[in-house]
What we know:
Blueprint: E1 4-6, E2 12-14, H1 38-45, H2 62-67, H3 69-72, E3 105-109, E4 112-118, E5 122-128, E6 138-145, H4 146-150, E7 154-159, E8 164-170, E9 177-182, E10 187-191, E11 196-202, E12 206-211, E13 217-221
Antiparallel strand pairs: 1-7, 2-6, 3-4, 4-5, 5-6, 7-8, 8-11, 9-10, 9-12, 12-13
Amino acid sequence: xxxxxxxxxxxxxxxxxxxxxxxxxxxxxxxxxxxxxxxxxxxxxxxxxxxxxxxxxxxxxxxxxxxxxxxxxxxxxxxxxxxxxxxxxxxxxxxxxxxxxxxxxxxxxxxxxxxxxxxxxxxxxxxxxxxxxxxxxxxxxxxxxxxxxxxxxxxxxxxxxxxxxxxxxxxxxxxxxxxxxxxxxxxxxxxxxxxxxxxxxxxxxxxxxxxxxxxxxxxxxx
Length: 222
């Protein structure tokens, strides 16, 4: 069983398969809208809603676009998850975050694709289950405040095996690498691309994350 953890107590994590790590679960629906239906996408971006959540944001905030280049760049069609994955962002507890899936952006890390979904003072990462470029399987969802993301504290990890963790996270513009350290002292410096990073880390529990390299700012651990 895959267990996803995170470091900020206010964050929300939704696991693949319907489990939840913070008592806030997202649901999926069977409706599907093909990518070429651009008028529907435009309507959602203008503030329409899916499901039972609260009204979603109509545009990415200036603060988020300024802090994260991935949210400031133009959107392309490959940024969008399939339509049948969108309702998870507006249902249950996650629906209180004002997320708008039509505004999402996607980037690839060493361990899988990550979709960044902006909300009302919140940001969610929807994580692919594998590093396959074609993978659209849910690997879990992590949500946290934009302030936490700007501070580099948006970090989550999954137990891939008894001694290996899949670590993923988001950092603000200007950070080109992070250094991950495991409980046995193993360290790994990971490049950042489009504000995102991901890596397999061996050596037991995640001990620390430093933003900016081995001597960078400590954002998790000791």
